[in-house]
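Key result, reporting period 2: structure in, sequence out.
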């Protein structure tokens, strides 16, 4: 390494540290691949460093108002979207701590909310036992029946917020326009690629 290369490397590394986002709880610079917490009081996602994520992973579920967001992303089989009354091609479902299940429909205005009838959820859960493992508040069932697709995933709630942002950013006109659906498909392609499977049915 040349005499002037080391100082340049040190300056670049220092600048990288400055640019790194801090943990929302303790201020420690975050790794690029970091975990998230959900402030369940206002449904606000927070970036968490390794130490803070371990701390809240050890806490009992339901204590306090910070919940560690799971990092699993798994396809779900045996689900009938019709049992859940999904009126649109994209919807995600979140089970709340009180047992209620709320559906969210991504739209150009954000996410429209609708409470699912308990009988409908229980009927769907009988056909799809994986729904019993859905973590309250921090995990979601995402259903995609748009444009001939038929797939469902259990995934972190933060992924659903990201999907909402994709829809809001790219939606045009009454039916979405030409840009939004390729971006939505790219979102699901990333899921399939990370899981190493093809859920196109």
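The corresponding designed sequence is given below.
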């Amino acid at each position: 390494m040349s005499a002037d290369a080391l100082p340049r490397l040190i300056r670049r590394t220092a600048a990288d540290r400055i640019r790194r986002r801090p943990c929302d709880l303790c201020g420690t610079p975050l790794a690029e691949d970091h975990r998230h917490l959900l402030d369940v009081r206002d449904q606000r996602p927070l970036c968490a460093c390794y130490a803070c994520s371990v701390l809240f992973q050890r806490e009992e579920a339901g204590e306090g108002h910070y919940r560690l967001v799971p990092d699993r992303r798994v396809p779900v089989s045996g689900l009938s979207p019709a049992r859940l009354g999904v009126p649109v091609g994209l919807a995600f479902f979140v089970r709340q701590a009180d047992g209620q299940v709320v559906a969210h429909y991504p739209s150009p205005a954000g996410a429209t909310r609708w409470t699912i009838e308990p009988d409908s959820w229980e009927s769907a859960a009988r056909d799809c036992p994986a729904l019993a493992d859905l973590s309250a508040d921090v995990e979601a069932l995402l259903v995609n029946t748009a444009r001939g697709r038929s797939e469902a995933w259990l995934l972190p709630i933060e992924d659903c917020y990201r999907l909402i942002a994709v829809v809001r950013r790219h939606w045009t006109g009454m039916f979405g326009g030409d840009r939004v659906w390729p971006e939505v498909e790219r979102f699901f392609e990333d899921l399939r690629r990370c899981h190493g499977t093809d859920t196109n049915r």
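The chain has a mean pLDDT of 82. The radius of gyration is 20 Å. This case is discussed further under Risks and Mitigation.
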